[in-house]
Known about the structure:
By secondary structure, the chain is of the alpha/beta class. The protein contains nine helices and eight strands. The chain has helices spanning 43-49, 66-71, 106-118, 141-149, 153-156, 167-176, 182-189, 221-231, 233-253, and strands at residues 5-11, 17-22, 30-33, 58-61, 122-128, 132-136, 160-162, 199-205. Strands 1-2-4-3-5-8-6-7 form an eight-stranded mixed beta sheet, with helices on both faces. Helix 1 links the parallel strand 3 (30-33) and strand 4. Helix 4 crosses helix 9 and helix 8 crosses helix 9 (233-253). The model has no long low-confidence stretch (mean pLDDT 93). Residues 37, 40, 127 line the site of zinc ion.
Amino acid sequence: xxxxxxxxxxxxxxxxxxxxxxxxxxxxxxxxxxxxxxxxxxxxxxxxxxxxxxxxxxxxxxxxxxxxxxxxxxxxxxxxxxxxxxxxxxxxxxxxxxxxxxxxxxxxxxxxxxxxxxxxxxxxxxxxxxxxxxxxxxxxxxxxxxxxxxxxxxxxxxxxxxxxxxxxxxxxxxxxxxxxxxxxxxxxxxxxxxxxxxxxxxxxxxxxxxxxxxxxxxxxxxxxxxxxxxxxxxxxxxxxxxxxxxxxxxxxxxxxxxxx
Length: 260
Ligand SMILES: [Zn+2]
């Protein structure tokens, strides 16, 4: 069943509504986001289809970047990667275009304002195709492990769990990797008024759900998943859907916080 209310939390550069289904705010809320990079296509229908378990507030944002979907692009209508436009470690010279300043894009403003007002205890953003459950910040470890533990041994094969690095190393990576990403901001930069921090997970869908996740990743992992999607999107979804929904249900049910 969908969360209770449809909200328009803002508008894209070209005026498309950014829509989200949400329960009223409350303790232990979970925000699930797709379509930050709309060319990572599978994330959008998965968030749209997901039926959260009852009992804790959930907000579902299937398409954070509607202008990008129209273009089948990673970027918004101004050519900005909205996952490089958040304020923590924002860099003008980021490898991906990061906008004129932190939060310069209407899509990131809408997301930031919703997060600050709804105050999720848990945030999960779906991307493809690194095949991993990536936890930002030590406060996110329990959530990442709950998602991993929701999977059978076979279902874990196309994923890896990425929580073991020491905090110091992770903070160094924060400088080098993904400057201005939602994950780095929410996982390392965001502190609510009561001092609590949200758990932040980037759930990277598999490049090939039929094979164990290689480490390092094959160079063509992105081409592999795009080719599969172009050929037969439903067969890709059929492989990843059940395990993803198990992880998301476990995330919604994990009690992490008494905020707000
Ligand atoms: Zn992505």
